[in-house]
Automatic annotation (TrEMBL):
InterPro entries noted in UniProt: Asp_semialdehyde_DH, Asp_semialdehyde_DH_beta, NAD(P)-bd_dom_sf, Semialdehyde_DH_NAD-bd, Semialdhyde_DH_dimer_dom
Family assignment from sequence similarity: Belongs to the aspartate-semialdehyde dehydrogenase family.
Domain of life, per lineage: Bacteria
Name of protein: Aspartate-semialdehyde dehydrogenase
Electron transport in keyword set: no
Pfam families per the UniProt record, alphabetical: Semialdhyde_dh, Semialdhyde_dhC
Chain residues that bind NADP(+): T13, G14, A15, V16, R41, S42, S160, G161, N324
Oligomeric form and interacting partners: Homodimer.
SMART domains: Semialdhyde_dh
Pathway: Amino-acid biosynthesis; L-threonine biosynthesis; L-threonine from L-aspartate: step 2/5; Amino-acid biosynthesis; L-lysine biosynthesis via DAP pathway; (S)-tetrahydrodipicolinate from L-aspartate: step 2/4; Amino-acid biosynthesis; L-methionine biosynthesis via de novo pathway; L-homoserine from L-aspartate: step 2/3
GO BP, one annotated term: diaminopimelate biosynthetic process
Length: 349
């Protein structure tokens, strides 16, 4: 019997979840049943989907009964508890948290880069970290043509990457700053830790907690997830992740060293233009390059400021920008589902 998909969004009231609902609304996926789930705090509130109001239900194991597909974006703890419950019920989970990303047997998928891994799923596909996704999309065509030895990246990450509370605190802090008042930081760099720094009119060189060798967890995600997605544990990655007072849109300064010598700048631009999911905006004479404001709501990754290194024939500099809630999270997750559906790997309507 033909029918549409029965789909849940877990964390439907959050920053990523809200975008997930929007991405599903604009997706060609045939959604027959839509189920927004969150914590008891927002159970009973309403979410609009394709012109209809849906009541948010509390996430309990039974709320996952009778689904085909569940998008999780409610944090690692929630995923660790409830993803196995969903998988046990035969639901395909696409998980935005970092809980299972590095586990063997869990594909970590960016459709433009390694969609084939998704076909091997055993009920769970992990969506990579936002800053990793946009970087690997931009680097895929360079890696395919010239090989990649080393990536050195500095990020300029938007506050929405830390969730709704952080985004609201940015606006409050900016208003206080404009009134000339003292800023009382509440959320960043890490909500659960006592040390706080203002983000209004500031930058914070810490995203997530410090984990090993003085690197933060966000920086280590960029190292380990890049190696897993490219299926190459020899790629060297050095990351410095920085929060900036931007609402939406992560930017990255990326320097790579390729295995092979690079061709002319024009050829490199053409190769990047031909890369899947990439928009090249790069014309120094016309001051053309991407900024976070350009990219809001878009699924593509934007690349500009393309330069060959002045000293190394295999060195390349790029500026890479994407909407962290769309391509960095919800858009990537929905794209995975769209491709699985297109290949007949989800129940067909
Ligand atoms: N923001 C990004 O750019 C980004 C990118 C990639 C991945 N992610 C990941 O996506 C996840 C969500 O991030 P976010 O930025 O959207 O956070 P957020 O704005 O704080 O939203 C969190 C969501 O999770 C729900 N939730 C919290 N505790 C829950 C529980 N016990 N049971 C059910 N639902 C619960 C919240 O519902 P209530 O309304 O009931 O509190 C809310 O819907 C995180 O794992 C994050 O690492 C975020």
């Amino acid at each position: 019997m033909s029918r549409g998909l029965r789909v849940a969004v877990v964390g439907a009231t959050g920053a990523v979840g809200t975008e997930m609902v929007r991405q599903l609304e604009i997706s060609p996926l045939p959604v027959a049943e839509f189920r927004p789930l969150a914590s008891a705090r927002s159970a009973g509130s309403q979410v609009q989907f394709r012109g209809q109001a849906y009541k948010v239900r509390e996430l309990v194991p039974e709320a996952l009964d009778g689904l085909d597909l569940a998008f999780f974006s409610a944090g690692g703890e929630v995923s660790r508890t409830f993803v196995p419950e969903a998988v046990r019920r035969g639901v395909l989970v696409i998980d935005n948290s970092s809980a299972f990303r590095l586990e063997d047997g869990v594909p970590l998928v960016v459709p433009e880069v390694n969609f084939s891994a998704a076909r091997e799923h055993r009920g769970l596909i992990a969506n990579p970290n936002c800053s990793t996704i946009q970087m690997v999309v931009a680097l895929k065509p360079i890696r395919d043509r010239f090989g990649l030895k080393r990536i050195t990246v500095a990020t300029y990450q938007a506050v929405s990457g830390a969730g709704y509370r952080a985004l609201q605190s940015l606006y409050r802090e900016l208003e206080a700053a404009l009134r000339g008042e003292e800023i009382a930081p509440e959320v960043l760099p890490v909500a659960s830790q006592p040390v706080k720094y203002p983000i209004a009119l500031n930058v914070i060189p810490q995203i997530d907690v410090f984990v090993e060798e003085a690197y933060t967890r966000e920086e280590m995600k960029m190292v380990l997830e890049t190696q897993k997605i490219f299926a190459d544990s020899h790629i060297e990655v050095g990351a410095t992740c920085v929060r900036v007072p931007v609402g939406i849109g992560h930017s990255e300064v990326v320097y790579v060293e390729t295995e092979e010598e690079l061709p002319s700048l024009e050829e490199i631009r053409a190769i990047l233009r031909g890369g899947e999911g990439i928009v090249v905006l790069d014309d120094p004479a016309g001051a053309v390059y991407p900024t976070p404001r350009h990219v809001s709501g878009r699924r593509e990754v934007f690349v500009g400021r393309i330069r060959k290194d002045l000293f190394r024939p295999n060195g390349l500099h790029l500026f890479v920008v994407a909407d962290n809630l769309v391509k960095g999270a919800a858009g990537n997750a929905v794209q995975i589902a769209e491709r699985l559906y297109a290949e007949g790997l989800l129940p067909q309507a």
